[in-house]
Amino acid sequence: MAAVTSKTILCVDMDAFFASVEQQTNPKLRGKPIAVIGSGGRTVVTTRSYEARKYGVKTGMNVYEAKRLCPHIIFVIGDNEKYTHTCRELTKIYSQFTPDFEIYSVDEAFLDLTTTHHLFGGSESIGKSIKQAIKDKFGINCTVGIGPDILLAKLASDLGKPDGIKWIKPEDVESDLKDLPVKELWGIGSKIADRLALLGIKTCEELGRAPSSLLRNKFGIYGETLKAMGMGICNRPIQTKPEDAKSIGHSMTLPKDIWERKEIKAYLLMLSEMVGRRARKHRYMGRTIALVIRYTDFETFSKQGTVSDFTNDTHVIYEKALKMLDGIKLKDKIRLLGVCLSSLINDPHQIPLVEEERKRKSILQAMDYVNDKYGEFKLTWGSYIMQERDAGVISPSWKPSGVKSVNVK
């Protein structure tokens, strides 16, 4: 088996994060099976406490399924401000041990300890100190995984859950991966695992020893990455700064299935505003606009097109999405809508030459200022002011900075 890198990476993964925060802030919930959900009628379980997991409650279940498995489960509507505030405060703890850390998601972070671990008694000592600091400040638990790269640190945290600390040392990589199912590796989902199984590859050892030509034939260039993963090798560096965005999108499961064009248009405008506003905030413009539709039977498809010039103007995005909608013959009611802006460049902040465009840009800037100061949709377009908007629980991919730092309520 090939040698792994000499780095020391630590993965901090919060245990049942949303549920743990709710239990800590409300003592009446401690020790009880709870599930964090959104406020809408179609909400699903986003996080469940370990007490609820014992009954088989899983993320993604609707409330009726969860209630059937655990009749006494307590549903708690998520409070996004609590979770994002906690995430931001966690960064202050990480920065005490290394300047090189990446907030991968709202409940997970990677720390590169390669150049600092000797200053604090070693990697395991740092892991224990971080666990204790989080427990002391927030009253919640996390699991710490340590490894020679991000892949193995993440694996160690998964194997150490809950409330544990596990270290996969370079000399133990081969034995630890030998019989490990490939689906346990970060980045290998069920579909890839099934395709590998058809090739007779079920364990990491088998993946690491598979011929490169076979994997390239079946997976293209990604086959080389898969082979390296099977050997515990991942060269992905810690991303200490937010990545340049490749796309900016928003989608939403609607409070009810809709068919009427008036309702669809209203939600499209709302989504276009969410996309345009985030693009303007982070100084991006794009030319490719995609419309995503999911029917009531969960069939999902997307359609995309380009506009004549790069834009982050809400109405340009909306008009293009609407034009694509006009070219689709809907076969059923719509359950979910999404709008996405891609082919991004940095916004040069040029003043439009056309008077009408200057006025529209000024209006957008004024609206952005008001909503930044007083909260999302405090100033909005009249055509969708009456539409229902469920307060869903924040996506785990939320980050405290960069384009994934979505405003919450």
Describe this structure in words.
The chain has helices spanning 17-25, 50-53, 63-69, 80-94, 123-138, 150-160, 173-177, 190-198, 204-209, 212-219, 222-230, 261-281, 314-326, 355-374, and strands at 9-14, 34-37, 47-48, 74-77, 101-105, 108-112, 142-147, 165-167, 247-258, 284-295, 300-311, 334-346. It is of the alpha+beta class and 409 residues long. The chain folds into 3 domains: 12-144, 3-Layer(aba) Sandwich (MutS, DNA mismatch repair protein, domain I), CATH 3.40.1170.60; 178-230, 5' to 3' exonuclease, C-terminal subdomain (DNA polymerase, domain 1), CATH 1.10.150; 247-384, 2-Layer Sandwich (Dna Ligase, domain 1), CATH 3.30.1490. A 5-stranded mixed sheet has the order 5-6-1-7-8. The chain has a 4-stranded antiparallel sheet with strand order 9-12-10-11, with helices on one face. The chain has a 3-stranded mixed sheet with strand order 3-2-4.
Descriptors:
409 residues; alpha+beta; MutS, DNA mismatch repair protein, domain I; DNA polymerase, domain 1; Dna Ligase, domain 1; 3 domains; five-stranded mixed sheet; four-stranded antiparallel sheet; globular
